[in-house]
Amino acid sequence: MLMPNNFLLTGKPGCGKTTLVSKVISRLKEKGLKVGGIFCPELREGKVRVGFMMVDLKSGNSKILAHVNERGPKVGKYRVNVRNVDEMTQIAIRRALEEDDIIVIDEIAPMEIYSEEFKKAVENALNSEKPLLAVIHEKSNLDFIGKIKRRKDALLFYVTPENRDELVDKLTSLILSSLGNTC
Fold it and tell me: Which of these, 30, 61, 106, 112, is most buried using a 10 Å CB contact count?
């Protein structure tokens, strides 16, 4: 049986998933590997979260993913800018599929999946031979997100404040192994 090359992180908001991904990316880059894809950090005004950005890991360019003042499909108090999701997907995820050793997607969640482009790119990343490190929405288990969680070629890790530090080494090692690199 082939070793899974899709590594999915889930857990409660604020448990450290994005920090964990950042640390794994740093370790992989230290090994000389090329990492591309997207991050979706919070957008705050003072202490209030007003939305989320999509950031291209390679260029640092960003666009609004969702905001309280956007127009588009509503998820909670936010409205998704589907055009921005499409554009960032075409730029960052597709480039990672073509040019990089490892693909990162933070995050596969209800906001992002309003974009058909995003869903296609996620499926392409999951089906590629390249390792995928992705954060996936904790509560969603139906439809697109549920199907990803149930894939046989994916390992799902539940991140907590207690295990997030030990997962840095474990995930780095698993990704390197999936590349045939045992350094």
Answer: 112
* 1 within a domain of the structure (yes/no): no
Residue 10 belongs to domain spanning: 6-178
Specify the number of domains making up the chain: 1
Cα separation, 181 vs 105, in Å, equals 22
Q: What are phi and psi of 98, to 5 degrees?
A: -85, -35
How many of the other CB atoms lie within 10 Å of CB of 170? 14
DSSP state of 90: I
Q: Is the pTM of this model over 0.85?
A: yes
> What tokens appear for 64 in the block?
């609004």
Q: Per residue in 135-157, pLDDT tens?
A: 999 987 779 999 999 999 999 99
What does the alpha-carbon distance between residue 121 and residue 119 come to, in Å, rounded to a whole number? Answer: 5
The 10 Å Cβ neighbour count of residue 37 is: 28
DSSP 4: P
Q: What is the CATH number of the domain that holds 146?
A: 3.40.50.300
Is the pLDDT reported for residue 80 higher than 50? yes
- Rounded CA gap, 173 and 181, in Å? 9
